[in-house]
């Protein structure tokens, strides 16, 4: 038997099942394979995780805790009433029989109640012990109803402090009134003993210490940072949320946050609306956009809130206030010299960082048990017989062709086993590569892939499919440490590598993904895996999905996420886009969103979305100037081929434009197709998708189209795939997630409180609206901005709606109408899909003459 230090014997086979684990000494590995006794190790961590996340377990535990809380309350109250009588019984403890003690106990919950209460009430907290049942009850309720009645952590901290503090105050009173005999049960041991210990030192100063303790707690608990004098003339800041398009509610800040009432000067409307809308109302009010009244809210909080209270509020509120000077809104005038509060560091000091997740503060991330645990997933391990047989066949085949090898090492992956061969000295690698087909034939298995040489190693790899493959469950990916601890912005699980490592990528860095694969090879499952990873990791305020599904059936289940994660055109009814015309409009709308976001970034002086959001979170960007927290947008297109067939350039151009420019502003594309031919994956699209993934395809040509190399035609299907990223090719097994798992996940998210509607993308007037049939356009009724828009277009020689929109600060609809009028006046040419229109007037002088003529007519 070989010793660990001995160099590998020629032609020996070694298993390498788990690269992630430290490698065993050779001796042990050989032993394991000789005996053939590879015992499956039981995963205690996963079993415990399963147990604790099982909803039946949490429900049972929750109810148990609530019952326990009631029991503790009864025991404590009873002890406070009868405690003096029970003390001696409990203290007598082991000195007498249990039955004897039990009969003597006066506690309503018998000896057990008296004993527990004796510890918590008498020895520790006194009357403050009553905090304990409240904490236990809240914890039980959280487990039972899966929502918090009160913020558990914060309430627990507050109650524990209250218990100790009460004990200290009462301890002081008991000590100074010399009533320990009768009243020590009320203050408990902590309060009494502490006061006794300190009284000798400080005397009545104890009270000052206790008072200071309270002060320090308040400072930290409520994050008080200064003691400015309260301005009683100030009106209280209010916070508002829309209930529907026409009305919105404001509600008192103090209802929502645990912060102390803000005693700062009144905030003006140009401060971030998460904390304050406008100092309009003293009391909770329901406000019509054009009129503000002081009626208290009678309706409870709406079941929905707007996308980002930041964005929506600032827009609507601006309309309500600035467009209606005579309205009843009493806006506090802002003196001209007053500094922009958004340049004032104090905002964070006063209100803390902006938290986008407060849009949906009670949102619960999906739990692991929504996904199925496939217990037999590791069943497909490769037997020693299979390994030895393959090894011998590889050796024999190579020997038949005159190739000698030094050693073979096997790495068993979930779908294929990689045999790494160290050829004998003098053997040319190209010779082995040229024998690819012969080796495949002799191993009589599909899916042999030869990697010669293995990048970074002096070996040759031969991948042979396993007879029984391992099912990689999505649950095992989600529960893995790498995924749970991943700090990626948009973490997506892609699968398991040949060495059984979990492969996670950051979509934000990829920054787009092109996916191909013949029908039935796992593309839809792959898209579901990607969506599942994102939904597990992101809060609805941080991520929006635009789902395009020309096949109409693949992504329907995600409908339920409409009010949480989906984004769509404002006039569109279906949250999942299936109609080609709507797809074109949506893509163009995303281009407008991209332009808008670039403008916001420019104004903010930021280079990318991360910097921008970080600045917004620090309250350095003013929502009144259009700034808002920008969620990531992930566009998923399931089946590009259909779209390219029907809309060609109209789809290609915006897709390419988005792929080219959108990475910095947080729009990422995942585009899938079953036909990876050059007329679907055009050069323009391909050039802008550096990360590409291929499931099994039907021909080497298809493989080349998608990956720039062959190999994908030799995959074995069912989620077996090749990922090409930064010129590396990695073979992965995609995890499996079934439709009913997706259904459970979407139900879990969809049944929670969501936004009032899907995230609204900017309006885009498609070709029907933008075609500009000049017969319908009345040039006598020109837009007041007509001349200005015409000059702009001619100066820039660019007939684009978004240029007008940006430079003249107009809404999309109005800019669209202006372009129609410009077309009717023959200043710009007709609509040409997503391309900018031709400008028909070449210089300003000609334009001015045209404008004069128009005025005379
Ligand atoms: N990762 C995987 N692990 C195990 N089995 C898989 C995996 N992916 C797909 N399969 C199997 O292959 C079948 C087809 O997968 P899928 O529906 O994703 O194919 P597709 O490429 O989207 O096909 P189409 O283009 O026709 O929609 C699945 O029903 C499943 O049985």
From TrEMBL:
Compartments where found: Cell membrane
Domain FtsK: from-to ranges: 499-704
Record's keyword annotation contains NAD: no
Membrane-crossing residue ranges in chain numbering: 57-81, 124-145, 157-176, 196-222
Pfam families in alphabetical order: FtsK_4TM, FtsK_alpha, FtsK_gamma, FtsK_SpoIIIE
GO cellular component: plasma membrane
InterPro entries with a match to the protein in the record: FtsK/SpoIIIE/SftA (IPR050206), FtsK_4TM (IPR025199), FtsK_alpha (IPR041027), FtsK_dom (IPR002543), Ftsk_gamma (IPR018541), P-loop_NTPase (IPR027417), WH-like_DNA-bd_sf (IPR036388), WH_DNA-bd_sf (IPR036390)
Positions of region (Disordered): 1-34, 235-274
Name of this protein: Cell division protein FtsK
